[in-house]
Amino acid sequence: CIHTHHHHRTRPDTHTHPQRPQATMAQEAEWITLQRKIFSRFVTQRLRDGGIKKEVKDIVNDAKDGVVLKELVEVLTGEKLPVKAGKGGANKFQQQATIKELLELLQKKMAKTKITCSAENVMEGDVKAVLGLTFQIILNFLKIDDPDAQGGDLKESLLLFFKAKTKGYKGVDIKDLKKSFHDGMAFCALLHKFRPRIVGSYDAISAGPAALGKALDDGEKLGIEKYLPAETVVKLDDVSMVIYLTDWYFGAALLMRQDVAARRIAKLVDMTKLHDQMKADYNAGATALTGWCDQKVASLGDRNFPTQPDGEAALAEVEGLLAQLVDYKKTEKPQQIAAQLDLEALFDNLAVRLANAKRPAFAPAAPPDALEKKLADVDAAELERSKALHAEIAKQNQIIDDRLCKALADAIDTFTGWVNSKKAALKALKGQELDAQLQALEASTGDHGDYDGKHKPALDAATAAVKARNITNNKFTALTADDCAAMWAQYLQYVEKKRELLQSQLKEKESGGLSDEQKAEIATAFAHFDKDGSKQLEKRELRACLASLGEPSAPADVDALLAKYDHSGDAKLSLDEFEDFMKQQLGTSEEKPDILNGFKLIALDHETVCSAKQLDSVINEKSFKDSHVDWILNSEGPKDGDGVNYPKFTEQTFAR
């Protein structure tokens, strides 16, 4: 039972304190001071893990009114307690009754441990009694071999986390959560993995007190509070060391989340730069093609054909002009058609990317339809020039064979109608799901054999018949079999570019933004905590697995995760369901809220300004580089001192 009567005030038994050797009074006082620091830190950690931002500076004094004790029990058990704690005008007896009720509830949760600390002990700040109670709580909620324990397997999670994050570093072999950290190399390796710029050359660090001191100093630069000196860290007992390492775990987890945020911002910067370049490339290409079309229409409209003194055009010279027209259509014009196809593919690619990124549509001065109209004007000018040249030649030759010309024109019309209908069908797929577009594209290639099997033989036969009669003017069409062959080649090129684009977009969509290293780490952690080999993680396994990956693992976090991703409703997650969750946590995201949250995380919760120093601190030379920071700080976006007003920057960037 829990004793509260002041005549029978109890002191905690020796088993409620960490075991320590006989010591002098000075050593005893120093040891108690250290325990107060460590145990206060433990309570702060647990409250923070439960979403309560409160710093417990001294557990003995801060626990007197019962508020901290109530919040701690609620966080550790994941249950709201039907107890009202706090001063709030309550008299001493009411406060004593409240704390007593809290201790009784805690006793039920710690059935295998007898709580000897009384309500009066707590209210009067009995140092040994309160430390003993805190120690009992630590032992109960950090147990790894008791299936009835309320806490997760924190020791195993920490061990796996630090091993995974320091794997491959020279001089680091983490076998336990105490001595393996005394030479400072494990701490240095952990910091170097996430912030190599802060640590400097890892190979230049030698194991020992200096390395440990360097690690603590570097960690403090990254927000890991240096509340114990290096010489004290090496004196910590097992439980105290676990509590101390939990601070480093939280610090590393923050660095990991900052890396994710930085990677997302880097992707936003890269994507925006790419979109801007694509727009510039399209506009430049469209301007060049439009200029060429205008110049070509003007030159093709020239009717000042060579003439002889009698006023008749010189047949040989006119035939030479016709040969130039034919050569132009074989050499110069295909290059411009290819340029138009490239511009259309570039525009389509950019349109898809902007739509997927929820950006405003690109509205150039000369969209693809306008470019097609320009080329159609060139086609019309070619037709008119061809007619004019052939009219001149016809005056000399009078060779007309309408039947053969009509047959060739019909074969050309049949072919061009077939190709144009296929291209129109592919263009009509815009807006559909990517996999549906790819399936439809592949299905459309089923009749490609008709070109060699039906259309080309018909075109070749009609062309041979026309050539046999030396017919050079076909009033029914300006196209030839060679034009059709070029059109077919261009269509096949269009299909291939469309296929490559869709496959690339599908691959990016399916990856979810996770690297191979992240996928391997997720699979390893999942398999490690799947203790019964069921290929599923139940709640306790899931909490430990989340903790090993540096993700929030409080009971409320796990419940929210299961509610969203447990599609079978059995309160367990399969590997596929777990990967879906991790894609959301770690994968690339181009959503505005995720970008804003990422800036806020790097800015350490500042609501508007992310400084240059904070941006520099997350550079890792892989996914977030100097060039990304330079672009953010030197863009036309809003400045604030040496940093950036990131809400305004994000709004302006998404508006582009």
Task: Tell me what you see in this structure.
There is one protein chain. This protein has 656 residues and is mainly α. Helix content is 65%, strand content 2%. It contains 27 helices and five strands. The strands form two sheets. It has a three-stranded antiparallel beta sheet. A hairpin with a 2-residue loop joins strand 4 (639-640) and strand 5. The longest helix is centred in the middle third of the chain and has 63 residues, at 238-300. It starts with 24 loop residues before the first helix and ends with a helix.
Which terms summarize this structure?
elongated; disordered N terminus; three-stranded antiparallel beta sheet; 2% strand; 27 helices; single chain; 656 residues; two-stranded antiparallel sheet
| Derived structural class | mainly alpha
Strand order of the largest sheet: 3-5-4
The geometry reads as elongated
Largest sheet: 3 strands, antiparallel
Enumerate the spans where pLDDT stays under 50 for 5 or more consecutive residues. 1-15, 144-152
**Distance between the first and last residues' Cα:** 68 Å
Please work out how many helical segments DSSP would assign: 27
Instruction: Provide the helix percentage.
Output: 55-70%
Rg, rounded, reads 38 Å
Mean pLDDT comes to 85
Number of strands: 5
Percent strand equals under 5%
